[in-house]
Predict the 3D structure of the following.
Amino acid sequence: MAQFFLVVFALSISAPLALAQPAKASPADFQTALWAASCMACHGPEGRAEGTGMTIGGRPGEELAGLMLEFKAGKRPATIMHQHSKGYSDDELKRIAQYFSQLK
Ligand code: HEC
């Protein structure tokens, strides 16, 4: 019986501790996910704007980052993205690009 209570005691202590562990996510990851969510308004859920040529989800991160940096530098013709990309530092654009590349 004492063993039973010991097990219950151990579980009641360890379960909340396990829940308190962040599931790999850091505040920086959360911030990137929020930025990416704003892109999805135009580029579709998970960045997959099927049939529009606007899909960015699942494409290589380096390719996406390169496109974003070209927009930002005004080297790539755009109606929207040249403005939008200026709202982020180069490092932030790379983080967003990496995020979309992982949406397989
Ligand atoms: C208001 C709508 C809108 C939002 C929000 C938006 N985009 Fe775009 N995106 C476009 C349009 C439109 C284009 C086509 C280029 C242009 O006209 O600006 C484009 C093009 C792109 C391209 C180039 C795709 C290709 O294959 O040429 C990338 C990469 C991209 N966007 C990434 C992003 C990311 C990352 C975000 C969020 C930080 C974002 N976009 C937010 C509308 C949007």
In short: Residues 31 and 38 are 11 Å apart (CA to CA). The chain has a mean pLDDT of 86.
